[in-house]
Amino acid sequence: MVLTDVVLAANHGVGGLLAAGSDVEGSRVVVRDTRPRASDQAFGRGVESGGRLVLTDAVFAANRDVGLAIFGEASEAEGARVVVRDTRPQASDLAFGRGVGVQLGRLRLTDAVVAGNREVGLFVNHAASVEGSRVVVRGTQQQASDQTAGNGVVAQHGRLVLSNAVVADNWESAVALEGTWATVHQVAISGTRADERGVGDGVFSADDSLLEATAFVVRDNARAGLVTSGSRVRLSGGLVTGNAVGLVRRQESEVTQDDVVIEGNDEDEPVCDQVCVDDYVSPEEAAALEPISPLE
Q: Cα separation of 54 and 107, whole Å?
């Protein structure tokens, strides 16, 4: 199916539903203001795809739960010049409001903006694979139900590749990785705000994740520029500055650095066997504190 110059507006439950095995190409498509399901006030998703979806010049605006959902092992999507913005929470419980969610499937985004959503801007989960080039993820707001999260990008047990990207002005963690293989090249990460626990990190890499970051800038985040907890991190040609703390290592993390500048932070690189948190007081004072993860 080919869709051109189409507006899907004010539908209930899901604006567009693509079953497994479907094949849709859309150009100049707008999906907006999807309403919750009448029976229980849940969902309100923009598009949910379990098949093949190719989008060019598309806008997803003011939907609920998830703006663009790519779910299922058979799902595969590509998007160029795509905007996903202002997704609202479910009406039933005020949870979620994610911009883009990918579970088990594959997504490739080029020249995309994911902005003003809630809970998570871009969510990658359950062996999903996401590649993004010239992507902006910014201004994610906390979840309305409990004022938690607000992450820019969260990847759990998947694969993430970002290049020429900006992740800015989110909450808790700009990029949070759990059991994920991630490659980041020419990415600027900045302006992460701290939640009520004081968590406000540029990058949080945990649970045996592998992060390879090259030609990057991580600056002006409320807590740490980069936290690694039980993961492997390879850094090359980067700048970490203007954060409360530059780099925090804990729980047998492995960090390698080549031509990386960590300076201009309140504290550049504390030595921590376990964790340095609580507004980054001295490592001695913080040693007795329990680790705080943005993924909890």
A: 10
